[in-house]
Write a structure and sequence with these properties.
The chain has 9 helices and 3 strands, in the order αααααααββαβα. It has helices spanning 3-34, 38-64, 78-107, 116-143, 146-173, 178-206, 212-223, 257-274, 289-292; strands at 230-239, 242-251, 278-286. The protein has a 3-stranded mixed β-sheet with strand order 1-2-3. It is elongated and about 85 Å long.
Length: 298
Amino acid sequence: MDLYSNLKEGEKGAWLSIWTYLFLSIVKLVVGFIGTSEALKADGLNNTTDIIASIAILVGLKISQKPPDGDHHYGHMRAETVASLIAAFIMGFVGLQILINATKSLLSPEKITPSLLTAVVAVLSALVMYFVYRYNLNLSKRIGSEAVRAAAYDNRSDALVSVGTAIGIGGAVIGFPIIDGITAFLIGVLVIYTAWKIFYPSVHTLTDGFDEEEVKALSSLASGVDGVIELKEFKGRTHGNMMFVDLTVTVNPMLNVIDSHRITEEIERKIAARQPHSVILVHIEPVGLEKLDSPEKS
């Protein structure tokens, strides 16, 4: 499966999240109002933002599939990362709203015990979201999609939120109604935390950040190629699930063009074996005489 087919495959995960969140948000908000549960209403409100976030991810995946053009020479794959960033902002905003509403509920508590039905809905929702999480996580690993992985983490967060909601409602049902408001507050904190977990890697990618451990691993592969005397420079960046690697190596100045080219091909082959969706640019330079006479590498 090629790169663009992978992105197309990722749309399935986004659509699954959208329809699941749409259904669950309606059920939770309706049952939350009927059953007088602040925690379930907060959970339902959280799911409404998840719909918007999932739509943003879907749009990002669609834009990412556009091939390179006159003013996007590297393609449009960073649209996937931008979509993840938008999703993080939406989640953070709603998490803040949940915190505000929960705080108001705690400061002015109403002694109303939520219905046991709201706890049942929360438990069933947690089970549904866990299966959606597993599907999207496996899909993200298979296609190497940053956006689908962000969606999976959001799904996992929502499953945990629903578990906490059920626990909070249960505590309220047995005679501690304040637990419902406390749970709503904790849901807000968890939503903001999940938003940060999506926000940070998105910003890191958009500012051309690159994993240091991956730098070490790929540098070791390039340095180990027969004929490479020294790895002088390594640069890496990512565009969606595509990796761009630029590196400079020194070789024996007496090598002909054909032998030098073989060295670049071997470097590209080794890196591509570790990172299949990558574009590698290898620059060859002749080593200085002092390096050439060194016994460390010939």
